[in-house]
Protein: NIBL1 protein
Organism: Dasyornis broadbenti
Amino acid sequence: EKTGKVLGEFCRCYKEQFGVALFNSVRYEIEGTGGPQAQLLHRKVPLEDHVIYSGNIFQYIEENKKWRNRFCVVPHNYGLVLYENKLAYERELPPRVLVNSAGYKILTSVEQYLELVSNSLPGATPKSGHSPILKCPTDFPLILWHPYARHYYFCVMTGKEQEKWRAVFQDCVRHCNNGISEDSKVEAPAFTDAIRMYRQSKEQYGTWDMLCGNETQILSNLVMEELLPELRSTIGPRLKGKAPERQRTWIQVSDAVYRMVYELAKVQYDAAVARCEQERPQLESTIRTDMDQIITSKEHLASKIRAFVLPKAEVCVRNHVQPYISSILEALMTPTSQGFAEVREVFFKEVTDMNMNVVNEGGLEKLVEYMEKLSHLAFHPVKMQSCYEKMEQLKLEGLQQRFDVSSTSVFKQRAQIHMRQQMDDAVYTFETLLHQELGKLHGKDELCKSIQRILERVLKKFDYDSSTVRKKFFREALLQITIPFLLKKLAPTCKGELAKFQELIFEDFASFILVENTYEEVVLQSVMKDIMQAVKEAAVQRKHNLYRDSMVMHNSDPNLHLLGEGPAIDWSEEYSGQPEAEPAADRRRRAKQVVSVIQDDEGTLPYGVTAEALLQPGSPEEPHPEVPPSPLDAVKEIREALVQESLGNEEERLMNGTDGSGASEEGVLLAGAARGGGTQPGPARDGDGVRCATPASPVPAAEIPSGAGGQPCHQHGANEHGECGAPQPRGTTESGEGVQTEF
């Protein structure tokens, strides 16, 4: 009943916003000139045939209250797929669990989790001495918490593993939260505007933390936001048992309701979209025929609303918004620009390390190997973590309460997605230019000089595009913060008077012109001038290496964008020297992996932690059949001996990225440990244990990013681009442990 009521109101809003979005799209198609042209190329399909990450991790199974070793795979769509073990994955057996992580938070503390659980069901806090809802057998938990859906519990053996898995999980959440396709120029804006209008009709202004996931997930969150308090007050008092048992039951109830809501919302939303698409050809025909009359009618309506609203809006802006714009902008600029500077530094370091190693080791053959790794740098959660962490420093203290910003996570994740995109654009432009040059080069020296020259060209393009992207992000963020505040302030005096303007709209154009949207545009115009001026002044002062709007970078590579239209470069196939190309079916089976496996073997829990100790009180001992791992003991012994001999006592032994965790089935991959912060004599090591000297990155005169000056921060680990000769996960499969909403 609640889902039907909420979706009924939302679908009415969606139908109205669909016509407006369609009109704006067609108008932009006819009139729009767009912003500055990007200098970097954009990759169309960045992760085709790739797996982001895979490895073993311990999962807590709620059904039998046991911890089990699972093989976790993160495919190119960033879903979490858990198999019984690696052999089950390689044999294409159905996965045990599929998780779409949109809306989840990654917790690394059991105490933090228990606090959230206690807050979700008031009055169910366990008394001192009672067993909590969850016990972790190691000191390194990883918990996926969601306000409505089921929770997932994992743990690992070391802090290094925890950091790596946390980076991977956060990347999954970041990607899945951004579930609405930006390629859709009509459906996406119609949906987000309809959500906003619905919430504003309930007096809910400002940012919304649960605007994450695909459309059906967002609608489910919208329903649950209203339904959960009623559900808690109805069901909460009836729950039986001790506090941990009541908490566990409440989580299961909430998850079951969330799944029901999801299924109902999907059916109703799909039906609404189908109806709008059916009407689309007729609407678009009317728009193209009567474009001039629609524009004239809208401008007439806007002038009347402006005369009524603008004086009040300007007073509100002058008194409550204008004094704080520069403070908000500065709070946004500092962490965002530090993050983009770190992206630049990481890119420079990776290319420079590659250049040094190619010169020292063997020319083109080594170049192919390194370019395979570099081409997916933007999707490497661990290497990109230093960039993302800069944005975590964002704070709008004081301003957050004043402008009713519930959380800064919306802005953090948006900026992090921009960082990843800029990194991939830089890498793709670099590899495209280098690929074009390779046929003309002879010898290592020419190759080295060419790589350095192309790197400098790409960095110039990156600086220009970075400035453009950041300025647009700052303007959008300032609008997201100030417009809801203004609408809320003006609502008592303006909103009730808007109905009288409805008569100014011709009936034939009522599908494309809405009074409420026009009113919001007028309010936006009242503050837009101040926002544009603040960002412009920051650029004029060259703050954080922002370029002035008047600066236009002349296209030094007129044919570059034509190169970007060509097929994707496959370095291993093109330069491997193999007589025949690998068949498409076999290629799909050999999904390359972006991040190396840190624990590839079937691990065991810590010494002293017995099977009994891992079970919660009263949990049954149930046999759990496992697919036996393939025997590789002899190979492991030989490889371990080789490792000991090659490193001796001077290097720390790292296998698959964790200390002494055993050799992988693909081979033992070595990495050097940085000692003394780079102050040791001799060259540094890159991510694959290859010695190289890394000069400082040439940075723009206006800004010296942290880490420059000859001491770049090296991340050490196993071969960060190992291959996984196994099929990718397919589809959604039901299992005894339950399956999260399909992705």
About this structure: The two ends are 26 Å apart (CA to CA). Residues 537 and 548 are 9 Å apart (CA to CA). The chain has 19 helices and twelve strands. The first strand starts at residue 50 and ends at 61.
